[in-house]
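Structure first, sequence second, as always.
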């Protein structure tokens, strides 16, 4: 069975339905195209201001997009519904709000913000910087090589 991803702009995504899709593409509910049962939109997650999480996510998570696409195409309930919604099944966007955040995000200021780690990653580094005379000698050598 086929599917289509409709990315046409909608100023108010939650108002975009299968009827809107039919009108935009000159189709009807009686159209016999194979994709008519899987008409996907990328506005499955959005803010109250109609900003799509697909574009506004702070960090790119392509594996989430793939999981969401797999869920939308297969209907597998063990997969998360991320980014996509099937308007042929009358799915509506999930609205995200600041109240849903489990981690307070850093803001610009006079101090360095905390590092934001992704799912299960630990902050670790084995890197060390040279100090004292060694650092001065390396800086002088680097400067000499540039001249």
């Amino acid at each position: 069975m086929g599917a289509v991803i409709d990315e046409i702009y909608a100023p108010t995504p939650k108002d975009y339905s299968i009827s809107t899709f039919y009108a935009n593409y000159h189709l009807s509910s009686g159209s016999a195209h194979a994709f008519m049962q899987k008409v996907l939109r990328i506005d499955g997650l959005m803010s109250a201001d109609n900003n799509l999480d697909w574009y506004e996510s702070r960090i790119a998570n392509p594996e989430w997009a793939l999981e969401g696409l797999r869920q939308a195409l297969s209907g597998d309930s063990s997969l998360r519904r991320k980014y996509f919604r099937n308007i042929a099944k009358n799915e509506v966007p999930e609205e995200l709000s600041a109240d849903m955040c489990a981690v307070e995000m850093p803001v610009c200021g006079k101090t360095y913000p905390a590092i934001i780690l992704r799912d299960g990653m630990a902050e670790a580094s084995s890197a060390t910087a040279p100090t004292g005379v060694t650092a001065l000698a390396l800086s002088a050598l680097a400067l000499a090589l540039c001249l």
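Margin note: The chain has a mean pLDDT of 82.
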